[in-house]
Design goal:
Elements lengths: L2 H13 L5 H12 L11 H14 L8 H4 L1 H12 L2 H22 L9 H11 L14 H16 L2 H7 L16
Helix pairs in contact: 1-6, 1-8, 2-5, 3-8, 5-8
């Protein structure tokens, strides 16, 4: 499998989110429902891991964080609907490898036993550091950068950010029904 091509295509899919009616409806539906297994791609293990990482990337401050905005629902639906099958397989393989590397390095068998500060250390050690190799010889900087891009791109198109930060108005302009033609 061509790793660079898969990462590039997944990045392009998230980087080129447009404000089409399909994206708007997906955003609004992700805010309202609990995880819909019909559109779900990731396993429960992956969802928990990605949600924790995305909360590290976009924490709860005076604005809502990744958990509050349910960014993982949008990412999950977007990957299920818009990413090619072979790229989905590569994404799952890289996520599994990254999770296994963390579990082996910590000597535990569950992500629940790892606190967020330890998880943040592994994430920050590998992101944007293309020369750092894990104990198993793999370089996880690409998957860390991809997770960050998925989180940030999804955050930018959430209903909260679009309305409160970007001034998005679903119907542009002022409507006045009594205008002379």
């Amino acid at each position: 499998m061509k790793r660079r091509g898969a990462i590039k295509r997944i990045s392009m899919a998230f980087g080129s989110l447009s404000l089409s009616s399909g994206i708007i409806s997906t955003i609004q539906s992700c805010q309202n429902f609990q995880l819909n297994k019909e559109f779900s791609f990731f396993s429960d293990k992956h969802l928990v891991f990605l949600e924790r990482i995305m909360e590290i990337i976009i924490p709860e401050t005076d604005t809502p964080g990744a958990r509050t905005l349910k960014i993982i629902n949008f990412v999950d639906a977007h990957v299920a609907k818009n990413i090619r099958v072979e790229d989905q397989k590569y994404l799952v393989a890289m996520l599994n490898g990254f999770i296994e590397m963390i579990l082996e390095s910590e000597g535990v068998n569950s992500m629940n036993k790892i606190n967020d500060s330890t998880l943040e250390k592994y994430f920050s050690d590998h992101i944007d550091n293309y020369s750092m190799m894990a104990n198993n010889g793999q370089n996880y900087s690409q998957i860390c950068a991809l997770i960050r891009e998925m989180a940030v791109s999804s955050y930018k198109v959430t209903e909260y950010v679009m309305i409160n930060k970007l001034g998005f108005v679903p119907i542009p302009g002022y409507y006045d029904g009594s205008v002379n033609i």
